[in-house]
Amino acid sequence: MTIQVGDTLPDVELRVMGKEGPEAVSTQALFAGKKVVLFAVPGAFTPNCSETHVPGYVTHADKIKAKGVDSIICTAVNDVFVMDAWGKTQNAEELIMLADGMGDFAKAVGLEKDLTAVQFGVRSQRYAMIINDGKLELLNVDEGGADKSSAETILASL
């Protein structure tokens, strides 16, 4: 079942790239006491994600944070090395590039997508969330494209 507005986000251990290498981080630590914009993409380095989705959040990061957002997180079902390399190519220093390598978070919030027919395996749907102190305030899921989960749409919703 897909997470609903008002629900508490599940606590899942994921990975980020730290100064010494991959580090475990819990979603509870990322969300507790903070206002967070989290957006998910089907895969790092994919065309729409690299050409439109992430660049929008990079461009609008200051405006989003000026609305009281503590963190902007990009997640995908990719490993931490891929997410780190992708963040560097996207100049995404203002974003947390969160690796959901096994799709545990996508599954826990009910937003996984089976793309085995095109050799991608199980990935994440494209979506964006506004999370306030661990509770879901807004969920926009895209059926195609990235309009509902774009930085511009989320900025207008803050």
UniProtKB/TrEMBL annotation:
Its EC number is 1.11.1.27. SUPFAM superfamilies: Thioredoxin-like (SSF52833). Keywords: Antioxidant, Oxidoreductase, Peroxidase, Redox-active center. It comes from the Bacteria. Residues 3-158 form the Thioredoxin domain. It holds the Pfam family Redoxin. CDD domains: PRX5_like. Coiled coil: none annotated. Thiol-specific peroxidase that catalyzes the reduction of hydrogen peroxide and organic hydroperoxides to water and alcohols, respectively. Plays a role in cell protection against oxidative stress by detoxifying peroxides. It catalyses: a hydroperoxide + 2 glutathione = an alcohol + glutathione disulfide + H2O. Signal peptide: none annotated. GO terms for cellular component: cytoplasm. PROSITE patterns: THIOREDOXIN_2. Belongs to the peroxiredoxin family. Prx5 subfamily. One of its GO terms (biological process) is cellular response to oxidative stress. The keyword Oxidoreductase applies. This is Glutathione-dependent peroxiredoxin. GO terms for molecular function: thioredoxin peroxidase activity. The keyword Oxidoreductase applies. The active site is at residue 49.
